[in-house]
Amino acid sequence: MSKYKIEFAPVDFSDAIKYVEEVLKSGWLTSGKFVNLVEERLSDYFKRPFLLTSSCTHSLELAYKFAIEKTEKNLFVVPTWTFAATANAAVNVGGRIAFYDVDDNLSVDFKSLARILQKHGNDVAAVVTVDYSGLPVDYKKVRHYIDMYAPQALFIADCAHSFGSSYLNEPAGFFADIACFSFYANKNLPAGEGGGVLIKSEWERDFRLMRLHGISKDSWARYGSGKWDYSIEIIGKKANMSDLHAAVLMAKLERFDEDQKIRLAYWAKYAEVVEGIEGVRMLPLSIGVRRGNAHLAVLLFEDINRRDSVMQCLVDAGVMLSFHFPPLHIQPAYTSEMFGVEVVESFGSIAEYYSNRVFSLPISAYLEPEDVDYVCENLYRCLHT
Ligand SMILES: Cc1ncc(COP(=O)(O)O)c(C=O)c1O
Fold first, then answer.
1. For residue range 346-357, what is the model confidence (pLDDT) as tens digits?
2. Which residue ranges form the domains of the chain, and what is each CATH number?
């Protein structure tokens, strides 16, 4: 039993039981029918090939490995305000890193991005963006900077937070060369564990090979066709999704639009409470054509002590909170020589400023309306004490 009255991101997976049961009864638990079905649906939605993987982290590793091979460069320009996976994946495929800063909405700071690209543009394999909290980055502007300073580089979008968001009326990730998604347990579209990669049609074969050891036919294709022979064409990774996870994903995909309506309504309730209170604001859901999915409900405070006291007040009331993210450029893993990570440049003063001024409120389509009312009442009280 949790000590919290309100969980941070609860999910009820019981609607997936029917599909999971079907998978278990079929005896085929690795990638199979459900992986293919979900891939078909998501490829239709994105109008580009979408491959399921075991996680967003593995999707990033595939994308980065591909970028190194394609560009023959190994520098990854990543935001400092992100989860460890965005940068670790670069190190795990032999890449170097440069960290750029965030703006006041915890999205791309174009000044620091430009400074890195002006200095290191020729070495860049990929510029990586993160749609933090589900708010899409300005995809066209990022592309413009890549074209200007590092035209060989790929644009890789870490869309771990942004399934269901849109930019210029296209799904988040659409305007990048490669976009990596997470279906981790707390995401808007959860499978428990899982990820996916959105690619260009001409790269589909490369990614299928990379996803499963470089083998020319996965086992579903081998057993299905009755032809067992295969060749190993490249040194790949092991990053396929199991059919059990794809079955959960199918169930959640079927109710995604309904879940999103509830999540957006909850986000709006929090925004109403915070509106007009001095010294605190909510990270915007959308900015112009950049339309978010309310993955996180992030509060930003002007005063560090007030942030701490409001957090404590909510925790005392039994409300579970979260914090995203400690900036990466000051973490031991990236600053200590011990780990052999090569960081060629770091910008992060804005990220450092916000790092102790934010926290995230509980948000999920599976919170009850009265749970959200309880958070709102306590948020109001804590902001006024
Ligand atoms: C920005 C970002 N990128 C990547 C990941 C990694 O996702 P996964 O757990 O699917 O590997 C996360 C996880 O939450 C994330 O927040």
1. 999 999 999 999
2. 14-254 (3.40.640.10), 256-383 (3.90.1150.10)
